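Exercise 3.2. Students should predict the tertiary structure of the chain below and write it as structure tokens, then compare their answer with the key that follows.

Predict this chain's 3D structure.
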Amino acid sequence: MLKKYPFRYLQLLALLILPITVNAAAPEDNSASAASVFVYGLPARTELPVSLLPISPAVTAEKAASAGHYLAMAGLDLRAVPAAPADGSAQDKEDFRIIFDWQARRTTDQCARAKAEMSHSYEVFFGKLGLFAAPTPASVTGFFRNVGEDSVAAHKYLKDVYKRPRPFVRDAAVKPCLPQVQGFAYPSGHSTMARLFALILADLVPARRAELLARADEAGLFRVIGGVHHPSDIAAGKALAEVLYKNLLKDPQFAADLRALRPLLK
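Answer key:
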């Protein structure tokens, strides 16, 4: 997809990605990833404060039982992920403004491409970029399947924390061009996984970092275009991916498995 629109498409994505300042809830972490998130919409944007909900890293029965392949949710501090916007708040209203704007101008082709990415996996998000030999080696797909388990465990945990309904559930005027998926909206699982995979791949192939992150942004944007996510769901997924990757890098088994992928790159 990015090969088809190698430069102009990335420019378009850049115009659609605009920063929203996030109040720092964890002063000890002043990194860019903890300080800002992104939403998608029209070029004119106002800065909106986003409060961070302190989510205790203390073990609860539910959290302790939730685990991915490398990570256990009980061991994660997820306070860097912005809290879901309150119903009717300025950010919530902005979410719907963006959703309705896309609904009015989305194309049949955009909806078709979004529909082609209903599932989330390495092959869906990055398989066409030719980073590894074709067909993709089983060890590569297995690695990303394992990482995907961590992504799913984390986003499902937060979905259950916030219980934010999908936009088409909240407002009947939202008309998705994708099947009306079940489950809660915040954060977006697609955004979380695509961003997490992109961060990993960008470390493996630094020269293609901008392309990989743009591809992940596109995957998240498709969910807004399709009408099944709010823009802030996508922003939260990106923030969650950053948290997960920082924690994955501390895991010796993940680090070893990641090193094993390098000889398989094209």
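Discussion points: The radius of gyration is 18 Å. The first strand starts at residue 17 and ends at 21.
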